[in-house]
Amino acid sequence: MALNVTSLVNATSLSITTKTKILNNFCAKHNYQDTINGAPNPQTKVQFFNQVVSEFIRDAVVSQAAETDAITARNTTTETTSAEIIL
Q1: Which domain holds residue 67?
Q2: Cα separation, 58 vs 51, whole angstroms
């Protein structure tokens, strides 16, 4: 299921001016380019915003899952090894 960040932003009570400032500053911070090789960027600022935020969330979830899996594997290995070493 795709995350629709725009609807989350639009659901707030921020003014249009504030939303525009947030979008413009976010895009500037993340190196959005209005033009690419002299042609208009086919990706809108809103699409760019959604892409960057979705990637951030995905990366955070994947990273946390990997960390949790690593801890589980380490604990399982430790328990198994400890049981095998008992003399």
Answers
A1: 5-85
A2: 10
**Structural domains in the chain (count):** 1
**Contact by Cβ (8 Å): 3, 61:** no
Read off the tokens for 60.
């955070």
Can you say how many angstroms the Cα of residue 22 is from the centroid of all Cα atoms in its chain? 17
- From CA 23, how far away is CA 10, in angstroms rounded? 11
Q: Name the pTM for this structure.
A: 0.66
For 26-78, the pLDDT digits (tens) are 999 999 999 999 999 999 999 999 999 999 999 999 999 998 888 888 888 76
What is the distance between the alpha carbons of residues 17 and 76, in angstroms, rounded to a whole number?
Answer: 54
